[in-house]
Design brief:
By secondary structure, this protein is mainly beta. The chain contains 1 helix and 6 strands. The strands form 2 sheets. Strands 4-1-6 form a 3-stranded antiparallel beta sheet, with no helix packed on it. It has a 3-stranded antiparallel beta sheet with strand order 3-2-5, with no helix packed on it. The longest helix has 7 residues.
């Protein structure tokens, strides 16, 4: 299967109001503007996926029930630690090509 432009798009819908201390989605805003320089500055044996999101400038994104967050999966992202008694309830989404031309196994 070919990789299309939507293969790297992900998202989530908050199903309940979710505060910053509740384990919310966290990302590094604007990282796409500096990813090449950052990658080139890592030691040769370093795995970029093992780097500390907090050190990169990660920001927790609290939201209300029904809010949708969409991001490119190459963006450094994760969940902020849940520091309260309420669970974070979300629905995760992934975008994939919808045509048979992009996915010939879908007949």
């Amino acid at each position: 299967m070919r990789l299309g432009r939507f293969d790297l798009i992900a998202g989530l819908i908050y199903l309940t109001d979710t505060a910053a201390e509740q384990g919310v989605f966290t990302c590094v805003p604007g990282f796409h503007r500096r990813i090449e320089d950052w990658l080139n500055g890592l030691p040769p044996a370093a795995n970029p996926r093992d780097e500390d999101l907090e050190a990169l400038g990660a920001v927790p994104i609290p939201d209300r029930a029904g809010d949708l967050i969409i991001w490119h999966r190459a963006l450094p992202h994760g969940s902020h630690p849940n520091r309260c008694a309420r669970a974070r309830i979300v629905q995760h989404l992934n975008m994939h090509p919808a045509t048979r031309e992009d996915c010939p196994e879908w007949k």
